[in-house]
Amino acid sequence: QSDIISIQLFDAQGNMVRNVLRETPIDTGSYTVIWDGQQDNGADSPSGSYTYRIVSSKSAVSTGTIVRTK
């Protein structure tokens, strides 16, 4: 079965820094998503904690924290 997924990253102040995936169709399974550290505006993101939000068209929103180090 396929689903529509969006993944967004937010900085510690709650500002969205990157749309990693935007309403992307995917099939059921396990996936690895790699963030290149860039913001949507092309700037390099500083080291720190970021919150990710995964939105699925078929299930609840998932959130978590990642730490970026340089």
> Looking across the biggest beta sheet, what order are the strands in?
2-1-3-4
The beta-strand count equals 4
Radius of gyration: 13 Å
Main sheet overview: 4 strands, antiparallel
Helical content (DSSP H or I, runs of 4+): under 10%
- How do the SSEs run, as a string of H and E? EEEE
Overall spatial form: elongated
Quickly list its features.
single chain, 70 residues, mainly beta, 4-stranded antiparallel β-sheet, 53% strand, elongated
Descriptive notes:
This protein is mainly β and 70 residues long. The protein has no helices and 4 strands. It has strands at residues 2-10, 16-27, 48-56, 62-68.
Can you lay out the helices and strands and say which pair or pack?
Layout: E1 2-10, E2 16-27, E3 48-56, E4 62-68
Antiparallel strand pairs: 1-2, 1-3, 3-4
Task: Write a concise synopsis of the structure shown.
With 70 residues, the chain is mostly beta strands. It contains no helices and 4 strands.
